Write a sequence for this structure.
């Protein structure tokens, strides 16, 4: 029987730390409902001690979603943070406290100004305190990928004894390489005597463009929770994109033999919803969900796809909730064609907004023979989302 991989979505926490991705309370609740429809297992709703707004968002999401999805609140490994996180998530049907503490030499020495022994004690105290509130406790060793493996193993062993049910191995600065991460996860799981009592989790950043590759390598090594964001938004170059991880697992079942709870037909609607909320278009070349992801330009490819789509498509647009229709927008396009193109690009606009985009398309078509997806994108941004600039 294939193993279950738990999808931990951090769009509303790490994702929101992406420049320009701030969301209002209502927008966060709406995105949380979309994540539920997507079928993620855990929603990290925010960092409650960070601000009153974050606290309220985590509490509101905890109350809004069903108990089929767990709601996590992030906290540093200090008592006041842990208490605040619990206060925010306690009304959820299935709450989780997620506490973190850095374990790399550079973070311990310069950021925390603590010795490894002190860090070990802080980690134990934090998890023990969180465990007095709930049996669902996650511990993250920040900057794990640059930490000493034996020290990390010791920290994980102790926090599991104190009640951590998930231990996370973040590649905080996007530094690790896939083969190295694979080796590291295996080493930790083999080395830690009580490793079977916790789910091993991974959390990868994309500074070297390896977040998804590292996540997949870790799954091959035995990790069973993946921390991701919709469209890969997040700090700096972002996080592992949930749609890429899930579709890689689905498309290559022959090598991964794991399952998730994700309804893949909700992938595109989720990316579209996020794009609309944060006012940023899905980039044209974005894997899986970008406007170009299923567009075939070369004659040879078009011919092949017409004969059998699988010649050049390794998944169908329908499988991720895209219509798959291509439409040429030009001088003679009517409002229906523009409306369909807007939807295909990932936007749900009201009549007034559609009218603005339609007028802009017509205006541009008078000057330009061919209107590309990027043109329509630019017009949506200018006419509908300009308030966000
Ligand atoms: O990147 C990171 O290390 C984090 C932790 C808080 C999990 O976001
Ligand atoms: Zn992170």
């Amino acid at each position: 029987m294939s193993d279950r991989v738990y999808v931990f979505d951090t769009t509303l926490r790490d994702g929101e730390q992406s420049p320009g991705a701030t969301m209002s309370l209502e927008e966060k609740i709406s995105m949380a409902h979309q994540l539920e429809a997507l079928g993620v297992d855990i929603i990290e709703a925010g960092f409650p001690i960070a601000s009153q707004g974050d606290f309220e968002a985590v509490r509101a999401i905890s109350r809004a979603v069903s108990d089929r999805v767990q709601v996590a609140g992030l906290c540093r490994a200090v008592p006041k943070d842990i208490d605040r996180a619990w206060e925010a998530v306690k009304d959820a049907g299935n709450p989780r406290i997620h506490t973190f503490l850095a374990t790399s030499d550079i973070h311990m020495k310069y950021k925390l100004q603590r010795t490894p022994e002190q860090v070990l004690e802080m980690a134990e105290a934090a998890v023990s305190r969180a465990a007095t509130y709930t049996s669902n406790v996650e511990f993250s060793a920040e900057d794990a990928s640059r930490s000493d493996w034996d020290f990390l193993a010791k920290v994980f062993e102790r926090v599991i004894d104190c009640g951590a049910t998930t231990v996370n191995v973040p590649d905080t600065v996007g530094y690790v390489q896939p083969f190295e991460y694979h080796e590291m996860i295996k080493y930790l799981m083999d080395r830690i005597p009580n490793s079977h009592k916790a789910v091993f989790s991974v959390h990868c950043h994309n500074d070297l463009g390896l977040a998804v590759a590292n996540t997949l390598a870790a799954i091959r090594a035995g990790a069973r929770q993946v921390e991701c964001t919709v469209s890969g938004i997040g700090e700096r170059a972002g996080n592992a994109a949930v749609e890429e991880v899930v579709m890689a697992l689905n498309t290559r079942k022959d090598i991964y033999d794991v399952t998730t709870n994700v309804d893949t037909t909700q992938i595109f609607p989720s990316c579209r919803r996020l794009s609309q909320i944060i006012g940023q278009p899905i980039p044209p070349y974005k894997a899986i969900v970008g406007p170009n992801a299923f567009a075939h330009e070369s004659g040879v490819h078009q011919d092949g796809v017409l004969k059998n789509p699988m010649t050049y498509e390794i998944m169908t647009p329908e499988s991720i909730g895209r219509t798959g229709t291509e439409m040429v927008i030009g001088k003679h396009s009517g409002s229906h064609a523009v409306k369909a193109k807007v939807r295909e690009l990932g936007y749900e606009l009201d009549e007034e907004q559609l009218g603005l985009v339609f007028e802009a398309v017509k205006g541009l078509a008078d000057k330009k023979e061919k209107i590309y997806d990027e043109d329509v994108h630019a017009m949506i941004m200018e006419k509908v989302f300009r308030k966000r600039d």
Summary: Residues 14, 170, 172, 203, 205, 235 surround zinc ion (ligand 2) (CB under 6 Å). The first helix runs from residue 25 to 38. The chain is about 45% helix and 15% strand.
